[in-house]
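Quick note —
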Amino acid sequence: MSYVKEAFDRVKLRDPDQPEFHQAVWEVLETLEPVFDKHPEYKDANILERLTEPERIITFRVPWVDDNGNVQVNRGMRVEFNSAIGPYKGGLRFHPSVNLGIIKFLGFEQILKNALTTRPIGGGKGGSDFDPKGKSDMEVMRFCQSFMSELYRHIGANVDVPAGDIGVGGREIGYMFGQYKKLTGKWEGVLTGKGYGWGGSLIRPEATGYGQVYFLREMLASKGETIEGKTCAISGSGNVAQYCAQKVLSYGGKVITMSDSGGYIFDKDGIDESKLDWIMDLKNNRRGRIKEYVKEYPGAVYHEGKRPWGEVCDIALPSATQNEIEEKGATNLVKNGCMAISEGANMPTSPEAYTILSDAGVLFGPAKAANAGGVAVSALEMSQNAAFDEWTSEKVDSKLDHIMTGIHKQCADAAEEYNHKGNLVVGANIAGFIKVAEAMLDQGVV
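Predicted structure written out below.
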């Protein structure tokens, strides 16, 4: 049995009830066999066993009082996965589906994603099974304050720097930062995604979606193609999807779908800038559901309980959640002539779906590379905080574009070096892994 397979079997044996974590680990490990042929020193140092076991896992109770005076209790957690190349860095997710397996999968992905950015940041992730949907601002504030009343003991500007994720936006970051500041008496860059004017960076809200499209642009350019004139199916309607759509439109692409957990909208005429502004107001201010779009724009169609991958499109941009493209969706995309996919969500394509897409020759930008824009600009926010500086939006966006272009080159170069030319999944895994592995070797057995 190969070293890679032995290491994966140990992961499954140790944590048999964490399928999302198993999937994330195997999707990386199965591509690393040629690395160990070239670098036996990684096997000698048991790098895989150390990489797949978090340095620290923190779980805690989060009690809070709702608007009716009832005491509620949720579970909070933080997985500080790997700090070989810098302080732990990764988002906080507030969603009923959150459990340790999901947080570990996200944290593991974050290690390699952060390494690809070339910024000195390690990998971590956290969150809670709290659902902010339907809660008042005061309920969200009380929860966030209780959550931070424990988490503050474990984080710091040079220790662990959380950010937002699903269910955690500017409102939640603000409440948590305020509580951290009150408890510690420190103003420091301990959270990213802060509001502009009190430590936040311009372009941070846009970063993941913009970066996803910059990566797409580079993929297409490698084949002599551009985004202009291409029909794009986007899933999601949150932060990532909104700014992904905005950047696609700026490059002359046509957006025909967006979605939420209830279903998706299809607009044959395209979701233009004014329609996108309406969606952003619906989701960011009124906190409504995407199905309301068809009342405002009767030419569109709402498909309840479905995903948009059956629509005819040139490009698919999954920007919602994990495993949203399954076998049926992948088969439909191939049948309908989809030429490229750039992942904005974390691990949105199932292994079975990826096999179908890969076999069909669809250009594929994996999440750990294509959605690294968010954490890249988070790292730029950390740099601005450390220097007590503020950069212009043009400067941040230029740096983001440069980083995403560099990530694509790293992935393409690593894929070619290890005889998988054009396979950006393999390239992303190998490039990120080698950077972390080298740092772990240099630092000894810790």
